[in-house]
DNA sequence: CTGAAAGCGCTAACAT
DNA sequence: ATGTTAGCGCTTTCAG
């Protein structure tokens, strides 16, 4: 490994001067700088980031903790977060907790304050949140994708108004004339996605529609689960003309179940989800959904975390992400007079 | 931040002893050790990994460079790689190059040898490979998912026999009686997926079947592109009874196009892909595909990279991953006598 | 404008 | 069994 002082020797200066050249051309004589640059190039020198991090007390690395990157939602977030981090001069360390709070704690213990200058935590359960709170003193932690803006956590966070997302979905279905609506509730990654379903149900109730328990299923977060649950729903309640799912994976599974059942989407049954993952528009029929603008949330989160690193220790404050927006595609349509 | 010497002071020993306690209980008196452990707990001490890395010259971090994590194939690889790395005591730094060799080079320049002890590189183009070769001297680099076992690169690599995967797909379709077969070739991430298509075509040719150019489309890697291309294919050649795609994303898009065209899969047209991404079995009809055993390849890659770090500088050697395997699901079936 | 020197927190000889 | 010492490669005053 080539070190600073080897470069210095070759350029006939000291390490300090080389270090200066590396990020402060002001104080160095152009001619000297050129000599140094030449030596750097010739030797193929690359700074040792560990030494730099040790000296400066900052590593220019952000950590992102998520439960399972195999869920298609996360890669989209990661992509955007990584771009944002990179363009701000930071690396992004992706930490999979495998849905295991123990793994999450171990990660946090190891990286917090040394490998990572700050940590972004998504979708955790409460036990883990408490743990975060205790380690927050040594390193900034930002919760992101917080689903309950009305109940801010004890940490800084970026909240998304998922209740509103549910409400938008409900309004859309109501407007299309649907009244018999089935509901699929996913299990997020630390509790059911109840903010979404509550928002949805509130609108229905305001319109005088009661949804009985038989039309509601709580399931794991996956296309498979959505498929199976939709099968069950349609068996229980063949008269349903629409299905609302708390996320797109479930909705996609539901749509496929309907196709298997020879029910046309959306002519026989409409389907709507939440999130707007990439798959949503790639599937046929393309999924109507409520977009929560993942990339924007990711960027906001990274920005805010970096700011937290620079000026830490304020009150735990919550920032609301841009509001969810309805994206109408091909999976929803008007209720037909006589269905199936 | 709590340091070793603060712990030492509280436990009335020196930093060296604390350091010993931290990973070598042999040499230290149990009573002392207990005192140290107590101090560590009370102070909430956590070792500074940068200091450790600087001292030891190793950071216990692996980097994984990939083109775009939004492609569903990558998260599955990442998940497995991260688990393997973690269980071997390493972190995994995921680096998105955004399909841009420049970004890849910048990453490599920064992290190689300091933040990462070794680098896993997937699916790169040749220009980047050359760059890797030059930086390989300072840090072990392992190419993974190499598609051409018959042409080993100048770096250590894990190769997957994709030609064989194509051949298996061809054999399967032939066995089902298909002769009019369309082909969708994706663009990997640095060149077309030709190993796959070559393996496929070789088997067809050996069976006396010529595939003419009109039945072959070269496209970008996505469900959308597969959908559009399949539409075009069926317009050109309505008599096709099967479609082979060089990856599952394309195949899934193709299947959806067929459904849109009111062609039943697999009764009218069979569809087969390569890879066996999670989506393949979640989609309906479930996709027949040739599994390349992503998780196994990821684990193998991590193992081999770690070994390379421990004993570097051998000849660039190639390791062949476990062979691809046909996974028959619902999207392929026998050719019907009279098709559409 | 450049050099000398100290030290970030940790580890690993080598002493005791 | 524990302490002493000397850096790892870099940044950063402070002198010159």
TrEMBL record, chains A, B:
Claim: DNA-binding is one of the keywords in the record: yes
Pfam families in the cross-refs: LacI, Peripla_BP_3
Keywords: DNA-binding, Transcription, Transcription regulation
Key word Transcription regulation present: yes
Classification via InterPro entries: Cro/C1-type_HTH, HTH_LacI, LacI/GalR-like_sensor, Lambda_DNA-bd_dom_sf, Peripla_BP_I
GO molecular function per UniProt: DNA-binding transcription factor activity; transcription cis-regulatory region binding
Ranges for domain HTH lacI-type: 2-56
Highest taxon, organism lineage: Bacteria
PANTHER family: HTH-TYPE TRANSCRIPTIONAL REGULATOR GALS (PTHR30146:SF109), LACI-RELATED TRANSCRIPTIONAL REPRESSOR (PTHR30146)
Protein name, UniProt field: LacI family transcriptional regulator
Organism: Paraburkholderia ginsengiterrae
Organism phylogeny: Bacteria, Pseudomonadati, Pseudomonadota, Betaproteobacteria, Burkholderiales
